[in-house]
């Protein structure tokens, strides 16, 4: 089967950073689905895993943790899906990625593709929807039934992939007042169209900008961009007994003591936790994606595709990695067809 893989971990401009390769088609066993991949999207986790290091892979390592496709075969323990079902999912970071014609994934972290979306538009959603949902509703404890209506959230990185769906979840399900950050006119327009009530520039003085809207503090802060830079501002604007959740790893110690006087909570969100550790509640991601698909088909949520870069090949995947590394992407970058 065709796939995009790597042997060495190289800068993205190196011609061997990602290569078109041929690999054996895997076989489904246990609770695995064998999915014929129709479309993928690319996330920051892809380029972070690919980032330069000394390791060398004897067999090509395949990246990619967002896909939509059709179930081609099922393992003997599968109960949730059958051959021919259209699906979407993010997969597990501990297994080969989905940048391949056929891909194995545990059914407990897979959802049925929204019927109203084609494969490319569906592939944009799984990783970011799971991340934003878990961050907002599981970690921060916001009610997805709107019981916290009127409370406020600052979403740092509003025009990125996670921010794009996070704005919608916070607004449509949480019924929150949403302040999103964006640093360019195009990204500000995008975040506003998705439902943000106010826009601030994360390169500026965020507390001062919030005050211009009459907002001294917010109930929740979601950090979807650069924890090191933005944690101090997040700590300054979060309300007493509020909460901050970040998805971005830090490179220096987080000044958690800034939250002590406020008794404010600090959470990490990593959407691969359930699949990585095989937690007993892995199936919650199947349920989550099922609900996301329902909300998309009902018109409550919309896809977050920013740009379709064309067919799935090494050149186009390298281009997607480069765009994400340079911070030029708005919404999600998708590719479709081999």
UniProtKB/TrEMBL annotation:
Keywords: Metal-binding, NADP, Oxidoreductase, Zinc. Pfam families: ADH_N, ADH_zinc_N_2. Residues 12-335 form the Enoyl reductase (ER) domain. It comes from the Bacteria. Gene3D superfamilies: Medium-chain alcohol dehydrogenases, catalytic domain (3.90.180.10), NAD(P)-binding Rossmann-like Domain (3.40.50.720). GO terms for molecular function: oxidoreductase activity; zinc ion binding. SMART domains: PKS_ER. Belongs to the zinc-containing alcohol dehydrogenase family. Quinone oxidoreductase subfamily. This is Zinc-type alcohol dehydrogenase-like protein. It comes from Paraburkholderia megapolitana. The lineage of its organism: Bacteria, Pseudomonadati, Pseudomonadota, Betaproteobacteria, Burkholderiales.
